[in-house]
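Q: I'm writing up a methods section and want to include an example of the input and output format. Could you take the sequence below and give the corresponding predicted structure tokens, formatted cleanly so I can copy it straight into the document?
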Amino acid sequence: MSDKKDLSQNSANYPKQSQEEPGLQSLMSPVPDDGATSYIGHERLKNKKALITGGDSGIGRAVAIAYAHEGADIVLNYLPEEGSDAQEVKGIVESLGREIKLVPGDLKDEAFSERLLEETVSFFGDPNILVLVAGKQQAELDIANLSTQQMQDTYATNVFSLV
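A: Here is the clean output for your methods example:
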């Protein structure tokens, strides 16, 4: 008998769902646990300053919230279309007594990436922590269905934005 849980049974209870890209966490059902109420911090990042990309939903959101629970102030980058999710994160971070600056923009744009760093330094000085979560993925069953633009956008987001 294995001690491993069969996660496929759990996922059967969730309705199939999809959204147009870039999708909003607030429209998911059920909404994922981002740690806002379930995570307890211990001030491990007290007075640290973090720049987090892709911080409006998913892993980036959970990281931003956990960092705030741990005492960090945050600059949060997200795509402009995901502003409602970013506003939710801002409310959570501020309710934890931390400072947060939202900076919408697309990391594929090199000029924006430079401006993001400038705004970060202007907000709280040099960051102590850089969390690069922003990413792009579009699942395709057949590689022939990938357009050149899709490949360029994915590469620019996932690779160039890290440089």
